[in-house]
């Protein structure tokens, strides 16, 4: 009897382990995405716009680079910033074009797999502090353009630092389960009919990753999409991140804020948002207006 | 029942900051908020012109830029007295980083003085000059709030 129970336990463990192994397997790009990436004729100028919209510099520049830094300084993706979260402290890696310390040796496919699926060239899951759950909505064309722009970014030899994450979060394979719960290839909100708002919808949901701070998270750190952009506790510090759009703001107010950092009352963006403005002030004015058009249209939908 | 009491106590604690009036606010916090309010008022004049919210008026722009310059010359150190960070003083969003990095904080205020001086010279010239100086001024505000002020 005991032996039988033991065998059963072993079988269950094997089945469970096997299921875990299958369920947590890092994903690969679909054949369609791969084909679209490779067929795309890359445009580094658009890649630069994608770079500033996606805000890569906010997390991946050295800690000494602040919102007032020059464009050249913001292009050095040396890494080293620490992000203290309830799950541990994440350290943004060097993603400069340095072949040793950075990602200069990567292929377009490896880059797209990292950005759109959160999977490293070695086949390991990245922690979702890297907002690939946003970037997975980007078009393959934008990702290929971004990679073309990447080739023009400087190399930096600063070695990446390890994350400080305790058990069980230190087991990256387990992130596969997190992805099962939170990796949603569908957009959070419907595409607006108005073309300008539709462009803004794409910029916010696929690149700008506004929701990473402006949408509340559940106990496992997944976004609560039922409260999309409704405001949330600050994920990396004290205080609260406001709901969008801010009450009483017009589309003009939002676009002006994203360009200059000034609220309609002429207070200024602070915290992480100061750096967001540093990025978004560098994109084309019609794209800022598009983001504003999308956010203003959100007000019509349930938004506590 | 204890749960209800806890909920009530939490609700009361959360409501407190909004109930705080100028009278029971720490005088240092009230004073620095007043400085920021007058800064914002004057920034609204030149910023409004820079953004096209109101027509350019050299005299109004000059007056506002002069005010900002003189405000930036205030010695704000006494208003940032020890024990008046966001954890200690009601209604404050001043982060403890100010006191652990006072040199960095002072450098930010000095950067505002430099930007304000440039604006003082530019605001009355013409709209293009005013707009040109606006980025530096906004950057000075933002850089300090990036590091030393808690979000809402």
Automatic annotation (TrEMBL), chain B:
Q: Does the keyword Iron-sulfur apply?
A: no
An annotated GO BP? electron transport chain
Entry GO CC: periplasmic space
Q: Write out the entry's keywords from A to Z.
A: Electron transport, Heme, Iron, Metal-binding, Signal, Transport
InterPro entries, alphabetically? Cyt_c/b562 (IPR010980), Cyt_c_II (IPR002321), Cyt_c_prime (IPR012127), Cyt_c_prime_subgr (IPR015984)
Q: Specify the superkingdom.
A: Bacteria
Q: Which residues form the signal peptide?
A: 1-22
Q: Name one GO molecular function term.
A: iron ion binding
Gene3D superfamilies, per this entry? Cytochrome c/b562
Q: Give yes or no: UniProt keyword Iron.
A: yes
Q: Which Pfam families match?
A: Cytochrom_C_2
Q: Where does heme c bind?
A: 141, 144-145
Q: Known post-translational modifications?
A: Binds 1 heme group per subunit.
The protein, known as: Cytochrome C554
């Amino acid at each position: 009897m005991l032996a039988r129970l033991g065998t059963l336990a072993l079988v269950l463990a094997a089945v469970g382990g096997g299921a875990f192994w299958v369920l947590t397997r890092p994903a690969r790009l679909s054949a369609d995405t791969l084909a679209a990436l490779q067929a795309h004729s890359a445009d580094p100028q658009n890649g630069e716009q994608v770079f500033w919209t996606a805000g890569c510099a906010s997390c991946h520049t050295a800690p000494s680079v602040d919102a007032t830094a020059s464009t050249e300084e913001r292009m050095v993706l040396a890494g080293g910033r620490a992000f203290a979260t309830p799950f541990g402290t994440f350290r943004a890696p060097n993603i400069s074009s340095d072949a040793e310390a950075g990602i200069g040796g990567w292929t377009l496919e490896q880059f797209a797999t990292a950005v759109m699926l959160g999977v490293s060239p070695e086949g390991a899951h990245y922690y979702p502090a890297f907002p690939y759950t946003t970037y997975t909505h980007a078009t393959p064309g934008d990702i290929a353009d971004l990679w073309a722009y990447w080739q023009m970014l400087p190399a930096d030899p600063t070695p990446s630092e390890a994350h400080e994450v305790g058990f069980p979060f230190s087991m990256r394979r387990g992130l596969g389960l997190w992805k099962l719960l939170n990796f949603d290839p569908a957009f959070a909100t419907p595409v607006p009919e108005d073309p300008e708002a539709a462009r803004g919808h794409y910029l916010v949901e696929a690149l700008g990753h506004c929701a990473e701070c402006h949408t509340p998270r559940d106990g496992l750190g997944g976004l609560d999409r039922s409260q999309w952009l409704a405001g949330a506790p600050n994920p990396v510090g004290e205080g609260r991140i406001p709901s969008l759009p801010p009450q009483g703001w017009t589309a003009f107010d939002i676009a002006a804020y994203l360009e200059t950092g000034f609220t309609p009352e002429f207070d200024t963006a602070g915290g992480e948002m100061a750096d967001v403005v540093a990025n978004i002030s560098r994109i084309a004015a019609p794209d800022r207006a598009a983001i504003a058009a999308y956010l203003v249209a959100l007000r019509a939908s349930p938004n506590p | 029942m204890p749960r209800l009491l806890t909920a009530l106590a939490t609700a009361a604690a959360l409501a407190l900051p909004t109930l705080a009036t100028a009278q029971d606010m720490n005088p240092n916090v009230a004073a620095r908020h007043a400085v920021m309010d007058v800064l914002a008022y004057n920034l609204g004049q030149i910023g409004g012109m820079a953004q096209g919210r109101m027509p350019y008026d050299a005299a109004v722009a000059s007056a506002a830029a002069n005010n900002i310059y003189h405000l930036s010359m205030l010695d704000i150190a006494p208003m940032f007295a020890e024990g008046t960070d966001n954890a200690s003083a009601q209604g404050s969003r001043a982060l403890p980083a100010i006191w652990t990095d006072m040199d960095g904080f002072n450098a930010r205020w000095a950067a505002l003085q430099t930007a304000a001086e440039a604006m003082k010279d530019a605001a009355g010239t013409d709209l293009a000059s005013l707009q040109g100086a606006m980025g530096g001024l906004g950057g000075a505000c933002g850089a300090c709030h990036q590091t030393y002020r808690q979000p809402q």
